[in-house]
Amino acid sequence: MKLVVISSAPFIYKKGIVYAYSPYVNELLIWQKHTDSIVFCCPTWRNDNGLLITEVPFKIKKQFVLLDFNLKTLASSCAAFFNSFYNLFVLYKVMQQADHIHLRCPGNIGLLASMVQLLFPATPKTAKYAGNWDPKSQQPWTYRLQKWLISNPFLTRNIQVLVYGEWEGSSKNIKPFFTATYTEADKTPVLPRNWSTTIQFVFAGTLVKGKNPLYAIQLVEALHQKGHDVQLTLYGEGVLRTILEEYVAAQQLQDVVRLAGNQTKETVQKAYQESHFVLLPSDSEGWPKVIAEGMFWGCIPLSTAVSCVPYMLDYGQRGVLLDKKLFHDSQQLIALLQSPTRLALVQESATSWSRRYTMDVFETEIKKILQP
Question: Are residues 217 and 141 located together in one domain of the fold?
Answer without folding.
Answer: no
